Amino acid sequence: MLIYLKVSPFSWVLNPLETFLFKTGHFDTARFMVINKDLLQTRKKVSRTRPKFVRQESWRYDRLAPNWRKPKGKDNKMRLQVSGVPRLVKIGYRGPRSARGLHPSGYIEVMVFNKNDLAKIDPGKDAVRIGRTVGRRKREEIMAEAIRLNLKVLNPRKAKGEQAKPEVEKAVKPESEPNEESS
């Protein structure tokens, strides 16, 4: 049995699964156009060498979450930067300026709240993120205009009537004549 997937003509529009895969770093970039690859690679290289910044003694007490808090105590070993103690957050650990704020696809994210905002966007380097407070009717107008202008939309939503999953057509293999065994 063969299975064929219907692919949307607007395959450049990210669906929620693809957005999730981008965030977790498991997106197959070979099938998706990525721009600014060199900037993204340098950003990744810098982030690999960046230490995990943890709150002082969060490893010792369950009640303390590991998310960063600046140590402020008078004799605090972390604040004094004693060796063997986790590192402090410093400006030198920041990523490259040219790669800051880039979406994992390499596009610059531009927030859009109405159709007029789309006129300022360059389809070659910018991607649209529709504001979360935009309602259904205006969102549909923005999506239609973005498709017309060939813009990349990072957070498209399915309309209520559409299916969440891509349609799957099953092509049934024609049954061959049964083998007649002679005994």
Please state the average pLDDT score: 81
Shape assignment: extended
Strand composition percent: 5-15%
Count of separate DSSP helical elements: 3
Distance between the termini: 30 Å
Low-confidence stretches: 1-11, 164-168
Description of the structure:
With 183 residues, the chain is of the alpha/beta class. It has two domains: 2-50 and 95-166, no CATH class; 54-88, no CATH class. 19% of the residues lie in helices and 11% in strands. It contains three helices and five strands. The chain has helices spanning 16-24, 37-49, 136-148; strands spanning 2-5, 108-112, 126-130, 152-153, 168-171. The strands form two sheets. It has a three-stranded parallel beta sheet with strand order 2-3-4, with helices on one face. It has a two-stranded antiparallel ribbon with strand order 1-5. The two termini are 30 Å apart.
Structure in a nutshell:
This protein is α/β, with parallel strands linked by helices. Helices cover 19% and strands 11% of the residues.
Main features:
disordered N terminus; two-stranded antiparallel ribbon; alpha/beta; extended; 2 domains; 19% helix; 183 residues; three-stranded parallel beta sheet
